[in-house]
Amino acid sequence: MDFNTPLDRRGTHSSKWDLMERLFGVSPDDGLPMWTADSDYPTAPCVIDAVRRAAEHGVFGYSWDHEDYKNTVAWWMNNRHSWPVKPAWILTSQGLGNAIALCLDVWTEPGDAAVVFPPVYHEFRAKVEKAGRVVTECPLVRDGDRYELDLDDAESRLTGREKILIWCSPQNPSGRVWTKDDLISIAEFAERHDLLIVSDEVHHDLVYPGNDFVPFDIAVPEARHRLVTLTAASKTFNIAGQRTGNMIIPDDGLRRKMAKRLASLDYKPTCLSVDMIQAAYSPEGAKWVDAQVAHLNENRAIFDAGINAIPGVRSLPLQATFLAWVDFSGTGMDEEEVARRIRDDAKIAVSPGNGFGSGGALFQRFNFATQRHVVQEAVARMQNAFADLQ
Question: Is the pTM of this model over 0.85?
């Protein structure tokens, strides 16, 4: 598998490349985009072959029968995650951002609150606020290089308006893989406060050796009456632009309510996205994912070693994802100076930590799902930008 051949994404309507100057002031001509969470190498050959076959067929008309798609998703979850999903449990959405928005629409009202555990994926807050709902932050506690739950503190932060809990597993941005006991604690917390759990598990295929990802539904099957699990092939296979995600809902009542809302919106997945995901969720796709994780693991090692050589800077060890969470608090610099050096001196576009909520200040998130030489170049630029600390 080739993950290291240079690929020019400029001028392809890539948000990662073509928006970096507008959003971060970093030119794509000499800058490195390490912000938004997609990868810079092509997707699996089996997926490309599926697109090629569709193009050669030449007809992209209405489609209707997607039971084979659901069977394929169920196969993947069972074979890759030991999760015996029934095809009937699966509903599709226009990506997982859309799925979160749908969950807020179906199971909350304007003015209701949603619980999140920051620092966490910034789009959780964005979706809640766009829906006219309120965010209740229940911050994670950092214990050395690891984030932990503090549910006693979380209890004290609830207002009584909370109706939904948006969970991130594996955790973005810290790369934390939650244990079964963690998930049981979250389920018990949700039960005490009658909260629907929306578990975003989009990074579940990108887990490093020595770590075991557990789907929420496997860890706590007794929570099914309040659980919606979100999955997608988007991060795993770099096909987020196809805007197709899964809402896996074992509970009949919850699923019927969401299905009714989808029907009212006349939503169905596109035929091309279905073809691509079915090709991805295959034995050939599985081999490609294994090779990709090995590539990412090496990138992670190179990035961490280089960044951690800068005094006062710490890249937290990841258990999953391709998103490094880097702590600059030991430099003695403020957020503005850290951001200036990364932007102007290193010429790298990254995701500012303060956007991830409480606990994100003086962090920056770096995406290393790219060619090896780009990671090496990024490390060299960062060491040069902070050379006065050496």
Answer: yes
List Cβ neighbours of 228 (8 Å cut-off, separation of 6 or more).
103, 196, 197, 198, 199, 247, 248, 249, 254, 258
Q: Cis peptide leading into 118, omega within 30 of 0? A: no
Question: Distance between CA atoms of 192 and 135, rounded to whole angstroms?
Answer: 19
* 361, 142 contact by CB (below 8 A): no
Q: Which residue reads 């070693």 in tokens?
A: 305
pLDDT digits (tens, 9 = 90+) for 63-95: 766 889 999 999 999 999 999 999 999 999 999
Q: Is the bond preceding 119 in cis, omega lying within 30 degrees of 0? A: yes
Q: Which residue has the tokens 């050589």?
A: 309
Decide if 202 contacts 234 (C-beta within 8 A).
yes
Express each pLDDT in 152-190 by its tens digit. Answer: 999 999 999 999 999 999 999 999 999 999 999 999 999
DSSP 8-state assignment for residue 344: I
